[in-house]
Amino acid sequence: MRANWGLVLLPPLVLSMILLFGPQIMFLRASFFEDLGIGRLGPDITFVNYILAFTDSFYYESLILNFQLSASVTLLSLFVAFPVAYRIARMTSRWAMIVLAAIIVSAFLSVAIKILGMMILFAANGVLNSFLLWTGIITDTIGIIGTIPGIIFGLVHLSISFKVLMLFSVIQTVPRSLEEAAEIHGAKRWRVYWRVVIPLSLPGIISVSLLSFNLVMGAFVSALVLGGGKIFTLPVLIQQSLMLFSEFGMSAALSALLMLFVFTINIISVILVTRVHAARLAVT
Amino acid sequence: MSEHAASTNLETRKPVPTVGFTNPFSRWRKSIGGWVLNAWVGIVIIVIYLPVVIVVGASVDPGTYIESRAFLTFPPRGFSLQWYLSIHPRLWHSLWVSVSMASVSAFFGLLIGVPAALGLIRCNWRGKILMGSLFRAPLQIPFIVIGVAFLQAYHLSADVFHINLVGSFTGLVLGHVFVAVPYVISAVGVQVQRFNPSMEEAALIHGATRMRTFMRVTLPIIMPGIYAGGLYAFLISFGDVTISLFLAGPDTTPFPVQVLHTITQDFDPTVPAMSALVCIGSLFVLLLVQKLVGLDILLRGGGSG
Question: pLDDT tens-digit profile of A243-257?
Answer without folding.
Answer: 887 788 888 888 888
